[in-house]
Each structure stands twice: as structure tokens, then as C-alpha cells.
Amino acid sequence: MDAALGESETATAVTRSVAKKAADEGAASENDEPAADAAAADEEVDASAETISPKKRTVSGGATKAVAADAAAADAAAADEDAEVAEAASAADADVATKGEDGEGKAADSDPAAADAAESDADADAVDAAADSAAKDGAAAKAATANTAADAAAEASADPGSDAAADAAAKEKPSSAAGSVSDAGPLAWRSANMSREDVDPKGPCRRDIKLHCQGVEPGNAVLSLCLTFHIKNENSGNELGGPKISKKCKKDIRAFRAEMYKDLAMDKALATACKADITKFCDDDFLYPEPGNIVACLREVNQVEKMADACRTEILRAQLDAAEDFKMDPQLNDLCSAEADRLCQGVEPGEGRIQECLREHRGKLAWECQAELFRQEVENADDIRLNVRLFQACLNDQRRFCADVKYGDARVKDCLEDHHLDAEFSPSCKTEFEKMMARRATDFRLDSTLRKYCKADIAEICYPDAEDISDVANFDAKVIECLQDYRDELKDPKCKASVHRLTQRAAEDIRFDRPLADACHEDRTTICRDVPDGMAQVFLCLQDNMGKLKESCRTALFEQLVRMAEDIDFKFPMKRACSSELQKFCKDIPHGHAARVKCLQENIDSSDMGEECRKEVKRDMARSAGDYRLNYRLHRACLPEIQKHCSHACDAASVNGSVTCAGTVVKCLQEQQDQIESESCKQEITAFSILEAKDPLSLDVPLQAACKGDLGALCPDVGRDHGRSLTCLRSKRDKLSAACKKEEMRFSVMEASDIRITPSLMNGCGQELQSFCRDVPPTEGHAFKCLQEHLGDVGMGAACKGEVNLQEARQAGNYRLDVRMRKECEGDVKQHCDGADEGKEGHAVVLKCMVDNFKSLAPTCQSEVAYVVRMALFQYHHGAELTAPCDAAVDEVCTSTGSAKPKEINGAVIGVYGQCLLSAKPDKLSEDCRGLVKVAAKEGAHLAGGLDQAKLDEALAKLKELPAGAAADGSARKSTLVISGWLAFAALLAVVVVAVAAGFGIYHKYFSPTRNYTLVVKSAPPGTV
Q: Mean pLDDT over residues 226-236, rounded?
């Protein structure tokens, strides 16, 4: 071992016998005193340092610190030398080195440090043997170790393709890279404080240097770089056997490198590579009085200015070291060392562990330390390599998914984000990556693309919330919320894209939405405690339990739902479930303004839509139905109309503590649709109403709330089939609660106003509407009247006839379901029949009252009442409330003995009984039935154009020219031409007028203007009435 130590060291060891005596007496613990002295000196220096301003990045008291540091370094060097001599002397004395087992045990028990020293001595022979073996490799070993600095830098950057030429140029000759201090330009005066240029080869790292860096000449920090390279290999598991770097050496390396970054004169590679950039950007003694401040200046400049490639490479090396250990960042070291000693005792330095510990205790840190810790986070956000734990955890995933993606501008992070939900993504990387994403969500400055592209928009739109970018982070993420709320006003397209991406993240995982995560923390841990993070599962759980949430959580959740209504990218479950449907139905539909959401809604009934997609679309529709603000298109189109017509519609819901309007605003818009001026708003109301009509008990929130109890009590067997549920409720209308009855009537009136909002008619009569009513408006009851007028046509299918009959029966029972009558007769109803059907809606009470007061009605109302009565006779329902007075006449007069009973479609006989009653002798009809026939005849007189003889003759002439039609029941007619319906009545009326002149006065009495009609010709088999 003496030979390995060298002759000079042996001589020194012999002459310093006092050290041997100390070792014999078991005082090996003294070996740790130099390190303790150095640490105490460091603490004294840190304590004397004054506060750094995060804006100017300046340090005062530099001279004092330099003197103290030099003194500490000198004391440590002297003490280390004594320790080395003691160790050598102890090794030279075989008797002392080979003490009995009992003696060694006592020494170890009395002093752990002495035990460590003994263990180190025991390994000395192995260390020296390894060093001798390495030396025998000759020139090959020297050549390999001479390039250690370049290898270490390349390994640290882990980017063989990045700045390779500049890297090689900067590190090809480490000794020449330093140059002379006088060549450093603005750095020249700072060289006075330089204490050393490398770790002491005779200090605590002596053995480690012989083992790992044999042949590397000290100077220009190459020894520290070589040893650091091996330490990193040890940490990553890449070191090939042999003893590890000793703790004492690690401590010495750390102290040296921390001092090196405080004094650029010690880091000549960086000083030389960045000479021009320092002169250009950082040559200001007032702002940067200390060499360590210049590194901070270069880091900041590197983010916004184009610097020399060699300088950028050295700055990256400095940042990588600082990311590993906060001590390598002069500002962070000065302001957080005391905090680290206090809060992170026992945390091993390296791999960013101490920074992680400090962030976990953020609330306990001094403001200055918080500011510097956050500043480092912001600077490191651009490059995944500067997040040590993330980089190590995701290196394999990066190679798998992002091999061709260059570092910088968060490109690798973005690439990994695109794949982090892939099945092949490793769990370890996923854990660290999602931790990074959650942290990034706390402040826009930690999102490098957002910070870069949204700077101008933030200043213009969000300035009151932005605060100074050099200040400590805003943990409420106000700026991010501002950008989301005003994304349509953002001017920079790249900023818009960045905001879109961050909103998409927030929709995926509540952890990536800091304000919501904070507001709902308690509810998350109680109501949704068993729900795993990710895949929007917590988000859905909170939505499903909205009523149970605390008010702060409920409000924050609703605000985020409003933001996410704009694009399917923000509706994570639906987008994931409907990926193929989006390609199939919405491939050419652009993103934004909920256009793709609308596309899926419009195709919800398609047989090509998968069940999972349909389920998610329906669930989203049900949620958005609860508040107009969750319907992006309606909200955007109707906001001015809402403020004008429905400003107080949400008040009742708010009083009850709900954050949503419970469908009240949409209900108001539907009821006020005739008053709305905006065409785009009308279109969105109609679009929503069409969807609502397909599933009213899910999408009509007021109806759902009012009828929930009735549905359970009266229709328990219908299950979740909402179409059957509504039919069941209507069939038991007399038993419904007042609230349910009211809401059902409101919905029915809305249905009747637009045929598109009546799914049964749209589904049953789609072809007929195209064939007969293509140009007829779907609103105001026009399309339905068109279908009624073509009931006898050959092309009218039985399914359509059945649906029209059912709708007519409902109209005959309640005048409100006839749009035109409801509007034209509003005044007459109030005057003659106000409150007549209270509690008896659906029983034709008001219509009967209007028939009784027919002569007193306004002419336009008379016309509408006459039309309703006539259609009730034409689509005759035996037992219907309105036409019940004529049931006996139908049985006695209109049903021939022995003849086949006319075919019924959904309980209605089309045309046959109506024609019979209109042509029957008055004495065959009861008084009430005659009254109905007279009212219907009034309508027929006006359809024929009054009593003008020329018009009647023309009508009859046209009647003769019409071809034979089809029977009411759809069977073909093969013989006698028979006319029926309105034209039959017109022809009959013409004959009566010509034959009986006295009839003029009677019919003239009932004359009033009315709408046009369509002549229908029927043929019937012989013997048919």
C-alpha cells in the first residue's frame, strides 16, 4: 500500500507519527472533523449572505463570502492532509492494522466514523490493486480517461444528436479550453477569488481518483467531471463492479462543484465558450456583481436570444448539474440551503431529490427560497432532461414513442403526452409524467409553450390576473382560467392551440385542473374516494353526484363544464367512445363551436352508431340539458335573447341552491320563441327541441322533475324506455299530479307547434312528408294539416295514417294542441270559455264550449273551430269526447245492416262516417250532432269559396275531371266513381244552392274568409254510403 501511496506520501506519513499514535488510541473519528469544519464554514458563509432579489438576480456581500469560503477550503485541505497521513501511517503499521477482533469491535462501537475508516482501510489493498491494474493498460487507459470530461457531458445531456459539433469543439482539448484568465474579458477581474481548479487529488477523493480516473490530470474541473460521471453511472446502475465512490469524495466533489458555479474563473470551459455572449448580454457589474450571477444571466438569455452553440452546450451542462443538485445553482444554493438543512435532513443529494423535498414543504419555505425554486422550475420546463426523475423514468418510453423528436420547446414532453394513455406506456413513466402534468397545471409559466406563445394575449386580456412573471407562482392558476374563458378572443393561433391542449388535459384528469382539484379535494376524498385518477373517472363521479357536493366544488365544477362544452376534445369519455363514429359521420366537420358534438347528436339514431358511443352521447345530452350554458351553440347564439326575455328564468333554481338553471332558461326560450328575433337563436332552440322530443323524460328537465313521482307510481313497468314512459303518462292523464300534468301539457303544446318535434310523426310519415308536403313549412301546424289533407291518397301509408289519427284525436281533446286555433281563438276562449276545462284538460271541454258559442265567435276563430270539428268527423273516433253526440247516428245511419264494417286505423275510420253524417237527413241526427254537422258545414261552405255560383260551377267541373282515388282503408276501387270529403260536400252544397234559392240567406249568415283547401276525390264499391 505504501508503494501505491508514493514515496513522498510515505515519507510524510513516517514523520507525522502523531497521527499513528492517534489511530492506535482509537481516535479515528477525527477523520470526519475536516468535513465537519468545511460544512460549518459553509453554513457560516450562507448565514452571512444577504437576500437575492429574484428580479435582478444580484448577491451582496460577495467579498466576505469569498474570504470565508477560501478559509473553509484551506482548513478542510489541511485537515484532509492530516487525515491522509494518519491513514497512511496506520496502514504502514501491520500490528495496528491487524488488531484483534475485540479491539476492532470496541473501536467500531465507540465511534461509527472510526468503523467506517477501518472498513475503508480494509478495502485499501483491493483499491490499490485495481488502480495498478488500470495503470498497466498504458496509453489506452490514458486515452480513455483523457476524454472523460467530454464523455460525462455527452452522457449528462443524453442527446448525441444535439449540438454534437459544438460539443466536440468545446471539449476536444479541455486544457486549452480554459485559456488564460486574462483572455476572459469581463471575467478577468473575478479571477482573484479563485481557490482551486479541480478537486484535490490528495484529498478525500485520492483513492477514488486512482480507481476511476487514473491518468486524468487535475485542472479545469476534469477530475470532478470524471468522478461525477462515475457517480451518475453508479446511480443509474451502469457502473461495472468494484468499490463505489466514497461518501467523503462525493461530499468533496459536491463542495467543489458548488463553488465552481459560484465563480466562473473556476469553470473555464463555460467562461471560454460563453465569452462573447457574456460580453454581449451579461457584462454589467451592477446587475451581475458576482460570477454566479452571470450563469443566471446566461440561463435567462438562453430562453429568448440566439447564443453561440458552444455556450448553449455549456449552459445546458450547468442546468443539468443544477437539476441534479440544487447546490449547483448559486442562487438556489444561497437562498435554500438553510431550508434544505432544516426540512430535508436525511435526503440524499442528487437526482433532484432535495428540490422535490423542498417543493413538498413549499408552504414552510421562505418567500425568497420559493421564488428561486420556482424560477428553476420555469427555466427547466422546456427540456425533459432537466427533470431528472422524469427523464430517467421515461427514457425507454421516449426511445419507443419519440425517438425522432428533438429536445427543447417541450417537444419530447408533448410527444409523450400524446402516448401516455397507450397500453405500451410504462407504469413508472406514467406515474412520473402525470405528476409533472399536475404540477404544470398550477401555473402557466410552467407550461413552456403557453408561456412562449401566449405572452402578448396574457398581457392584453389577462393582465390584471397575470402578476409579474418573476414573482412566486400563482397556485390558483388564474391566468390559465382567463385564457380558457377568453379563448375565442386570443389572437395568436399558437396560443389558441396551447390553450386547447391544456383544456384537453384538464378534461382527462382532475389533477391537471388545479383550481377544480383544490375546490373539490374534500369531495374527491369522500364521495369519490374509490374512483381511480385518470380517464376522466373522477370528473364523471363528481358530475353524477353534483347535488351532494359542497358549494365551492359544485361551482368550480360547473364553471369548468361550461368551458368544456365547446369542443368534443374536452369531452374525454365521449371522444374516446366515439372515435370510429367521428371518422364515419364527422370526418369533415371542423373542431370548435361544438360542431362535432352536434354531428354525433344528429346521428344518434343511426344503425351505424355503436352502443358505447350512443350511450356517451345520450349521457352528455342529458347533462347539457340541465343548463343552457352547457349547450355551447345555444348559449352563444341566444345570450342576447336570454338577457332580453329570460333574464329571471333561473332565479328559482338559484334560490334552491342549484348552480344550474335546471332547464328553466331553455323552457323560457321555447315558450318565447315567437318573440325571438335572432334567426340563429331560433335555429338552436329548434335543434335542441328536436333532440329533446326524442327522449323528453331525460332531456326536458322540468318535465322530468315534475313527473318523476308519477312515473314511479303510475308506470312502474315501463323501465328506462322514455318513449313508453311518456305514452303511459298521457294515457293516465286524469291521475297525474298537477305539476306533472302542467309540464306534460307544456311539452305537448311545444310538440304540436313543429312537426319536427314530434318523433312519432317524423318516423311514421317521413316518406309522405317528402312526397306530399315537401314545400310546406314544418311549423305552425302547416305540415300536419298537409298530412291530414292527403289521408285518402294512394301513397299514404298505413303507419302514417295511424300516427295522424292519434295526433288528431289528441287535438280534438285539447284545443291547445291545434296551433292555429290556439292563436286565433285566444280572445274568444277567454271571453266565452275561460277556465272551462280546469281539471278536465284532454276532454274537449273548451271545444264543446266553442261549438255552443259558435255564432258569437270572431270570424277567424269560427273558421278554425269549424276545421277542427270537420277533421274530427272526417277522422272519426267512436267514443271521442268531441264527436260522442254523433255515435248513435253513426251506428244507426252510417252502418248498413249486413255490410262489412269500415276498416279502422288506430281507432279512426277515415272519411266514411264523416261523409255519411254530412249527407244525412237532419231528422236522423240528434240535436247535439246536428250542431256539430252545422259547424263542420260552415267550414265546408268557406272551403268552396262561398255562394258565388260561378265558383261553384267551376269546382264541380274540376270535380268531374279528377281521376278515381283510393278507398279510405287503402283498398283499390274498381267501379262506381264516388266523391267524398271536402269536394263531396262542395258538390252537395252547389246542388242545394241551385235547387233551393232560400238557402242563400242561411249560408250567407255563416260566411267568413278562410284558408284554401285541397279537393279530394274518392271512389267506393257499390252499396257504400
A: 85
Instruction: Compute the C-alpha angle 19/21/26, nearest 5°.
Output: 100
Q: Which of 769, 770, 764 is nearest to 785 (CA)?
A: 769
Q: 909 - beta bridge partners?
A: 876
Beta-carbon-side half-sphere exposure of residue 929 (alpha carbons within 13 Å) = 24
Measured over the CA atoms of residue 725, residue 726, residue 731 and residue 732, the dihedral's sign is: positive
Residue 422 is classified by DSSP as S
Residue 163 Rama label (left phi>0; alpha psi -120 to 50; beta): left
Count CA within 13 A, CB hemisphere, residue 113: 14
How many whole angstroms separate alpha carbon 168 and alpha carbon 1001? 115
DSSP run (H or E) holding 876: strand 875-877
Alpha-helical segments (H) within 630-677: 632-645, 651-655, 664-671
Which grid cell is 911? 272519411
Cell 279510405 sits at which residue? Answer: 968
Tell which residue, 860, 849, 853, has the closest CA to residue 825: 860
- Residue 236 CA to residue 556 CA, distance in Å, equals 43
CA dist 919 and 374 (Å) reads 94
3-state secondary structure (DSSP) of residue 593:
coil
Least confident of 559-573, 575-589, 805-819, 832-846: 832-846
DSSP H helices in 93-123: 94-97, 101-110, 112-122
pLDDT one-digit tens code per residue, 276-290: 998 888 877 666 666
**What 3-state class would DSSP assign to 517?**
helix
Long-range contacts of 191-196 (CB under 8 A, 24+ apart): 191/265, 193/66, 193/70, 193/263, 193/265, 194/263, 194/265, 194/266, 195/69, 195/70, 195/73, 195/259, 195/263, 195/266, 196/73, 196/256, 196/266
| Three cell numbers, residue 228 | 461525477
Q: Over the range 573-583, which residues count as b (16 or more CB within 10 Å of their CB) and which as e?
A: bbbebbeebbe
Cβ–Cβ < 8 Å for 638, 649:
no
For the whole model, what pTM was predicted? 0.67
Question: Any bridge partners for residue 759, and if so which?
Answer: none
CB of 779 closer than 8 Å to CB of 888: no
Helix (H) or strand (E) holding 136, with range, is: helix 124-136
Confidence band (pLDDT; 50, 70, 90) for 987?
low
* Three-state SS sequence of 684-708: HHHHHHHHHHHCHHHHCHHHHHHHH
All three cell numbers of 275, joined, read 465569452
What mean pLDDT comes out for the span 378-390?
A: 93
Q: Give yes or no for a contact between 934 and 865, defined as CB atoms under 8 angstroms apart.
A: no
Taking alpha carbons only, the member of 867, 882, 786, 872 closest to residue 822 is 867
Q: Are 1001 and 1007 in contact (CB under 8 A)?
A: no
Quote the distance between the C-alpha of residue 656 and its chain's center.
Answer: 28
The alpha carbon of 425 is separated from its chain's Cα centroid by a whole number of angstroms, namely: 21
664: region left, alpha or beta (phi > 0 left; psi from -120 to 50 alpha): alpha
Q: Which of 275, 258, 120, 250 is nearest to 182 (CA)?
A: 275
DSSP β-ladder status, 875-877 and 908-910:
antiparallel
Q: Which among 265, 295, 297 is positioned nearest to 179, based on CA atoms? A: 265
Residue 69's nearest CA partner among 292, 397, 391 is 292
CA distance 909 to 883: 13
Region of 422 please: left (phi>0), alpha (psi -120 to 50) or beta: beta
Grid cell of 923 as nine digits: 231528422
Which DSSP string corresponds to 238-287?
Answer: ---SSPPPPHHHHHHHHHHHHHHHH-GGG-HHHHHHTHHHIIIII--TTT
Task: Return the axis-axis angle of helices 493-508 and 478-485, rounded to nearest 10°.
Answer: 110
- Which of the given ranges, 25-39, 50-64, 90-104, 223-237, has the highest pLDDT on average? 223-237
